[in-house]
């Protein structure tokens, strides 16, 4: 590997490990060495987006795309920069353009992701979140700020009698006019605003001393109609650009807890009907509250930004069911959008990948055993996802790195005809619960394991844990007499 390629590898590894300071240092070094390297402005722009300084990259990315209009990821990053610069119509148009180019790529396969994945659900602790909810409501009630559970938090309490499993934040509603007073009071109690609430003035996002994230959702009365409105609002843009949702009139009643009274919606079911529709008592894992909300006023520029960007991410990560649900919601607002029509037709056709399966391995020094294993895996479903174990897994378990570097191994696997998607594994199988969460996030129905692992302790644990997610483990036949280890040994022996 050349020095430049080594630097690219280190920079990418730092970025995806969320070591952003190191990533920026390495990409700046790459910029100095190779100013024409197209990957550099795309990643530096993404790093500046995290610091809310993405707008400064607009002209650079526009010029880059004029020279290289095939860079799908650059369109997506440019759209994010437009959105951060509050140029919402332009951002929506560019997200739409990114989707159009993404659809032209084979099987929507974009192996490199520039969008940051949220890991908030990994930090979700149901007991801590529940305690934080009631404590936050009590803090506000004691200061005469009536606040109440809303959105997903209300849904969990009313449908399941508890907060939603694996949620990412706590949703609390209050009068919009009391927002600043509420924030000041919570900050006095150790809360702090998270990343400037991601550029929104509603809701406002705060982290509690317990580490749980709380979204304060402001509700106001629309002057002309007298209706209750909320939604996602950006400061200093025309109000009609915002994502606006309509609700029933707020009716509150006290709720008694051991530590004191809090406020709760008297008409909770009316609120849930407005937001989720009358089917809210039935769990729907593909419902996206931001895009699929029943009470969304219209498909405003900000609503378009969220819809197109989330659709892009789901397609990019091959989350077919979630992508289809969002695309269907977009069509309700834009029934004549030919691109989305084509996408929905493809996603719902008989050719769409309905049965996703996962194969795992290092795939170092590719041999006939690997090909037999992957061909067997492909036969178990419609869409084969291959998880390639990264170098550091081998260092921990075997004490040495594979002969071929991880990104090269992934690209080799991705090039095989039977493979639909290749990605790096996020957690080793021995870390059962983390591995299960990652596997479940891929929306696979089967995991194909090499038969040599059948009966092993770590695979027995994983197999049992996956059953809770209706994911089955199937063991592939073993190709006798061949392995990467044997090939390496033979090479070493012949070289001596």
Helix amount, in percent? 40-55%
The percent range for strand residues is 5-15%
Rg value: 25 Å
Number of helices: 20
Query: Averaged pLDDT, please?
Result: 88
Tell me what you see in this structure.
- By secondary structure, the chain is of the alpha/beta class.
- It contains 20 helices and 14 strands.
- It has helices at 3-16, 20-33, 39-50, 58-67, 72-84, 88-104, 126-142, 151-159, 179-188, 268-276, 289-292, 301-316, 320-333, 338-348, 368-378, 391-398, 406-414, 432-441, 457-467, 484-495; strands at 147-149, 170-175, 192-193, 204-207, 213-221, 228-232, 243-247, 252-257, 260-265, 356-361, 383-388, 421-424, 446-450, 472-476.
- The strands form three sheets. Strands 1, 2, 3, 4, 5, 6 and 7 form a seven-stranded mixed beta sheet that branches.
- The longest helix has 17 residues, at 88-104.
- The chain is globular.
Properties at a glance:
single chain; 5-stranded parallel sheet; alpha/beta; 496 residues
Short characterization:
The chain is α/β, with parallel strands linked by helices.
Fold blueprint:
Layout (H helix, E strand, L loop, with lengths): L2 H14 L3 H14 L5 H12 L7 H10 L4 H13 L3 H17 L21 H17 L4 E3 L1 H9 L10 E6 L3 H10 L3 E2 L10 E4 L5 E9 L6 E5 L10 E5 L4 E6 L2 E6 L2 H9 L12 H4 L8 H16 L3 H14 L4 H11 L7 E6 L6 H11 L4 E6 L2 H8 L7 H9 L6 E4 L7 H10 L4 E5 L6 H11 L4 E5 L7 H12 L1
Parallel strand pairs: 2-5, 10-11, 10-13, 11-12, 13-14
Antiparallel strand pairs: 1-2, 3-4, 4-5, 5-6, 6-7, 8-9
């Amino acid at each position: 590997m050349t020095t430049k390629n080594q630097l690219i590898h280190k920079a990418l590894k730092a970025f995806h490990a969320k070591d952003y300071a190191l990533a920026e240092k390495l990409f700046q070094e790459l910029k100095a060495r190779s100013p024409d390297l197209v990957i550099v402005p795309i990643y530096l722009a993404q790093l500046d987006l995290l610091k809310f300084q993405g707008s400064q990259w607009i002209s650079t990315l526009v010029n880059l795309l004029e020279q290289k209009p095939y860079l799908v990821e650059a369109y997506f990053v440019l759209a994010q920069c437009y959105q951060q610069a509050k140029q919402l119509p332009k951002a929506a148009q560019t997200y739409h353009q990114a989707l159009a180019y993404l659809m032209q790529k084979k099987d929507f396969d974009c192996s490199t992701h520039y969008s940051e994945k949220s890991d908030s659900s990994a930090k979700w602790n149901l007991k801590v979140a529940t305690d934080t909810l009631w404590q936050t409501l009590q803090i506000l009630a004691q200061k005469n700020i009536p606040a109440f559970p809303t959105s997903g938090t209300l849904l969990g309490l009313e449908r399941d009698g508890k907060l939603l499993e694996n949620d990412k934040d706590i949703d609390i509603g209050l009068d919009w006019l009391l927002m600043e007073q509420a924030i000041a009071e919570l900050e006095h109690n150790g809360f702090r605003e998270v990343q400037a609430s991601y550029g929104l003035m509603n809701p406002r996002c705060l982290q509690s001393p317990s580490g749980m994230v709380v979204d304060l959702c402001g509700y106001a009365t629309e002057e002309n109609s007298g209706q209750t409105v909320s939604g996602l609002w950006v400061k200093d843009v025309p109000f009609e650009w915002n994502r606006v949702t309509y609700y029933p009139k707020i009716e509150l009643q006290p709720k008694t807890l051991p530590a004191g009274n809090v406020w709760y919606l008297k008409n909770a079911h009316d609120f849930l009907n407005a937001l989720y529709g009358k089917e809210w008592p039935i769990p729907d894992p593909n419902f996206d509250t931001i895009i699929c909300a029943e009470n969304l006023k219209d498909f405003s520029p900000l609503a378009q930004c969220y819809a197109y960007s989330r659709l892009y991410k789901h397609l990019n990560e091959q989350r077919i069911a979630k992508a289809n649900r969002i695309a269907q919601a977009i069509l309700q607002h834009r029934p004549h959008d030919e691109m989305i029509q084509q996408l929905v037709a493809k996603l719902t056709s008989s050719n769409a990948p309905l049965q996703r399966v996962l194969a795992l391995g290092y795939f170092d020094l590719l041999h006939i055993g690997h090909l037999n294993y992957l061909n067997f895996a492909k036969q178990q479903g419609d869409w084969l996802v291959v998880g390639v174990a990264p170098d550091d897994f081998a260092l921990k378990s075997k004490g040495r790195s594979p002969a071929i570097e991880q990104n090269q191994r992934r690209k080799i696997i991705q090039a095989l005809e039977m493979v639909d998607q290749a990605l790096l594994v996020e957690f080793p199988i021995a870390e059962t619960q983390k591995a299960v969460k990652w596997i479940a996030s891929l929306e696979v129905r089967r995991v194909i394991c090499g038969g040599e692992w059948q009966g092993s302790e770590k695979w027995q644990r994983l197999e049992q844990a996956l059953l809770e997610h209706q994911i089955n483990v199937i063991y592939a036949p073993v190709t006798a007499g061949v392995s990467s280890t044997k090939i390496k040994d033979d090479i070493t022996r012949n070289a001596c």
